[in-house]
């Protein structure tokens, strides 16, 4: 779910930064860059306090909102670097033909951005699938526990079931490996398309 939210938000912000004439575009870009510099572990306590204030502890919505807020700058820059490959003349021609910004975004820019959409979905899935800190903090109930947190609690203070932990680790890695094998061509294109001029 958070991958879908991330694709929509990051692509819209990147579209605005790339194609629209915004007054404070540089300030917004610097603000996003600042968001990339701050690690999640440095703001985990204020983040928890904010989520608790809104009553979203132990809800998947709270985790999704935190995931999106922490990773959005990375994916905005990923989308923006990909959108730079789309000619500005294509955008201007669509405007001359009477298309609105929403129509250009939905019918021209996003269909041409399949590799970066798949890359964003894969990376967001991997980050949320493997995340331990936010899930451990924001989903304390056993019923909401994710696989990464479950593996942490799979060992006791005196004993460790090495075979069980190994099996759980393999089970946790299988979806990520399978998705990467299926979409590796799109993933590599999405990561490298905007990297070189």
What would you note in describing this structure?
It is a single chain. With 197 residues, the chain is an all-alpha fold. It has a single domain, classed as MetI-like (MetI-like fold). It has ten helices and no strands. It has helices at 2-19, 25-37, 44-53, 60-83, 88-96, 101-109, 114-130, 133-138, 147-152, 162-192. Helix 1 (2-19) crosses helix 7 and helix 2 packs across helix 4. The chain is globular, with a radius of gyration of 20 Å. It starts with a helix and ends in a 5-residue tail after the last helix. The mean pLDDT is 85.
pLDDT average, as an integer? 85
What class do helices, strands and sheet pairing give? mainly alpha
Q: Helical proportion?
A: over 70%
Taking Cα atoms only, what radius of gyration do you get, to the nearest Å?
Answer: 20 Å
The main sheet comes to: none
Strand content: under 5%
Q: What is the number of helical segments per DSSP (H or I, 4+ residues)? A: 10
Give the SSE order as H and E letters. HHHHHHHHHH
CATH fold node name: MetI-like fold
Distance, first to last CA? 33 Å
Under CATH at level 1, the class stands as Mainly Alpha
Q: Which word captures the global form?
A: globular
How many independent structural domains? 1
